[in-house]
Structures are given as C-alpha cells and as structure tokens.
Amino acid sequence: MIEFHDLSLGYSGRVLMSGVTLKLMPGSFHFLTGPSGSGKTSLLKLCYGELKATSGRVEVFGQDIGTMARDQVALIRRRIGIVHQDCQFLDHLPMAENIALPLEVAGQVADARAMDELLAWVGLSGQARALPPQLSGGERQRAALARAVMGAPDIILADEPTGNIDWEMSQRLLRLMTELNRMGKTVVVATHDLNLIRVAKSQVAARVLRIQGGRVQLAGADL
Amino acid sequence: MTKPNLGSSLRRLIAGRRRADRVVPPSGHTATLTTLTSAAMAFLAVFALALSIATGRLADRWSQALTQTATVRISAPPEQMQAQTEKVLDVLKTTPGVSAARVMEPDEIKRLLEPWLGPDLPVDALPLPQLVEVAEAPEGIDGSGLQMRLTAEAPGAILDDHLRWRQPLVSSASRVRILGLLSLALIGGATAALITLATQAALAANGQVIRTLRLVGARDGYIARAFVRRFTVRAFMGALAGTVLGMAAIALLPAAAPEGGFLTGLGFTGIEWGWPLLLPVLAAVVAFLSTLAAAFQTLRTVR
Q: Please, are residues A95 and A131 in contact by the beta-carbon 8 Å criterion?
C-alpha cells in the first residue's frame, strides 16, 4: 500500500533521513515515533506527496507519488485521510461543511444522514453548524478525523493528533483510530507520546517505527 | 497536470457551483477594490470608445464630403473674367469624371466668407475671384491633367481638389481614432494588471485555504475556479455599472449641432450604442484570463 524504496530526504544540504526502505501493508496499524525534528512529519508528507524525496521513491497504491503531476497527487490524496496536529480547517465554514470538504472537492455532495452518523461517531452531534474556532482542541481533532474519513479513504495518516489535547481525549481519539483499523483501513500515526503507543498496543496489533539518526527502525518491546 | 482549456474552463466557470465558491472566505476589501476598479475602467473605456467612434465618423464624413467636390478658382482681370469662366466651363464639360459644374453666385461666395469677414461684406467692391463648383462622378477626376488643360485654356484658373485641406483633416481624425483605440487597449491592459494584482493578493492571503484544499484532494482547477469565478463576476458587475454610468454621461452631452463642432459630435448614434455594451463582457473575459493565469501561477508553487 505504501512502500519506501531506498529513500533519502534532505533540506538545504542537511540529510534528514537516508536509506529508508519499508513497506506498510493494507490494513496495518503503524506508529511513527522519534525525537522532535527526527522527520516524522516529513515521512508522512512523503506519503501524501507534499514533499519529494531527494533520492529513492515512495510508492502509494503502486504508483510513484514523487513523479506525479499535482492533479494526480490530488487524486491519490482523495484515497488518503490526513489528520494534522493543527487540524487545518477553513475557519469561515461551519464544521459540517469542513468535514464534507473531501467530497466537495471531488464533486460529490455529502449525505445528510451519513454526516449525522459521522458526527455522532466522533462525538460532535450538535456541532455541525459551529465554526472551527468555537470548538475545543479535542473537538477539533475529532472533527479532523471525521473529515479524514469522510471520503472513505483506504489510508489514514495522523500527524501528532494528540499533541494538543488531554489524556482522556487522546484515548478517545485512539479508540476511533483503532476502530477504523478494524474496518480495514491502513493507519499511520506519528506521535512522540509513548504512553499512547503502549495503550494502543493493548488494543490493536500495532507496529512501531522509530526514526533516529536519519534511519527508520522497527522498535521492539523496549518502548 | 492537465493544462487549462479556455472553453471547458469557461463552461465550468459559468456552471460553477455556488457552494464551491464558499471555500474561499469573503475578502471585502479586495473585492470592493476589484469592483470599483472595473467600474472606473469601464467608465473611461466608454469615453475612449465614443472618442474613437466619433473621430472615425468625422474622418469618414470629411473624407467623403471633400472627395466628391472640387473648386476652380479664376483670378483674372475683370474684362477677361467672363471669357475665362466660359472656357473653364467648356473644359469641365469635356472632362471625364466631372458630373456637373456651375458658376457660384456672388451671394453664395458672400455666405462662404461671412464667418471670417462678417455679414456686411461689400462683395461687389472686392476683387474676388470667380468660383466654379465641380461635382465629381464616383470614379473621380484626374486632377493634374485637368489643371494642365485649364492652364492652357484659362491662365487664371486654378483647380482646388481640396486635397491639401482634406489630407491633414482626415489624417488628424484617423490619428485621434487610433489614440482612442490605443486608450481602450491601455485601459484593458491596466484592468488586467489590477485584477491580476488583486487575485495574487487574494491568493497570498488565502495560502492556508489553498493548503487545506490541497490536503483534502482538491485539484488545481477546483481551487482556481473558486477565485476565478469570484473575480470574473466582480469585474463584470463593476464594468456593467461603469458602462451604464458612462453611457448616461455620453447621452447627457449637448446634442451635436449641424455645423458639427468636434466635441459636440462626441457620442453614439443608432446601432453604435450597442458597442459599449460589449465592455462588461470584455472586462469579464480580461478578468477571467488574468485571474486564471495568476491562480495557476500561484498553485504551481504549492504542492
């Protein structure tokens, strides 16, 4: 589903990671961890084509995303749900319209009942007409997850989704993501929160990838 | 990336969904400026168009009126005047391209001189030349050939085919017409530049919106259309208002007097009133193209 082939990434002469080769299978659950600045966010951005590798290639759904034109990348992104730490909403639109954006840009209209069910699933019933700035951090993260799954993607990529929310809300968000994984979605969560990873491993068969010193390694039980 | 196709882009723009436009937040300041700029430019364009049309009309009228007539001026001693006049008329009768020729009466000459010398002119007391008005057939006359024959038959006769008057007048009117058209082109260019700047400002101010739309899988065309439609509609509405105001101002100008002063002739007549109505459409096309170019240029930098 997502494959890295001898990938290197660098910024202005500095090598962030090199020789990365890994394969994320359909339906798998991966945590991506490592110190701040180690390249967790960059690795996710490589997956959805916001960044291009310095060398090597990233294949998503069997296609080299680094060589794609922007409009082709857009089509790939419709199959990937992305949850950002800062959520990235359009602040002038009500939550329901924000959540429906993946369908809107694809020329589809969100079914009202499906929207209600989705809002209920993330615990935001009654917030459909609220504007993003009116929501709390946890509510915004759950709304971002709702938007990520709106277009029925095959992959969910979450970048520090629990970075700005309390522990209870983090666990709630984690439960939603494990549910998505049980539905067959491939989930990749970048986080530095080791406690969250420990809790998750008790709920789902998650693998942990650690980025350190420009290398990506499979972490063992020594978290 | 699929290259933007003008035809399909226009179709999508016109059929664009109102809801899709909402992804771009309302930007009051830029929007108002775009509308006002477009209105002001259209207002000026109406005058440039009127100037161009009026000078074109003037050039045609002068050209036609002066082309179809000529004058033979006979300056001779009083005792030879009658004989030379008859010789001139004889020559004109046999000249190809002359449809009619007649000796102008003293009263007619007086009327011609009145604007310069006043109404109390004692024509009889002045040694004025005799004038013969020549009406030309559509094929025209051979001016130099006729002058040679006149000189041979009536030494005091000089042919004035109005060329030395006509040429500078027609040439001036044509140049003013070109200036009017140039003004229209400059107004169009300035409108395009201003709308491009406004679009670029709006795109820069909405960088976060563009990144979010990219994140959820929006293609370039979708994002561009949201901006293009907005600016095109505003440019059209502004230009429509400016055009209507410009046309009203033109309509309120003093009516053209028969003697046709240049400024009093500025305006539209009959079907010419249809030309300014094209300005809002042109403004919309200019806005569409400039916004589309600006949007795609910006989107190239955001992956």
A: yes
B214–A151 C-beta distance less than 8 A: no
User: Beta strands A29-33 and A2-11: pairing type?
Assistant: unpaired
CA dist., res. B228 & res. A167, Å (int): 45
The number of distinct structural domains making up chain A is 1
CB contact under 8 A, A74 and B217: yes
The residues spanned by each domain of chain B are: 6-63+167-299, 76-155
Strands across the sheet containing B98-103: B98-103, B130-136, B69-74, B157-160
Q: Quick check: ipTM above 0.95?
A: no
CATH number, domain containing residue A24:
3.40.50.300
Q: Which of B17, B24, B208, B216 to mutate to test the interface with A (most CBs of A within 10 A)?
A: B216
CA distance linking residue B141 with residue B71, whole number of Å? 12
Q: Which of A1, A78, A76, A26 is nearest to A183 (CA)?
A: A26
pLDDT in tens, B196-216: 888 888 888 888 899 999 999
Q: Is the pTM of this model over 0.80?
A: no
How near does any CA of chain B get to the CA of A222, in Å?
A: 35
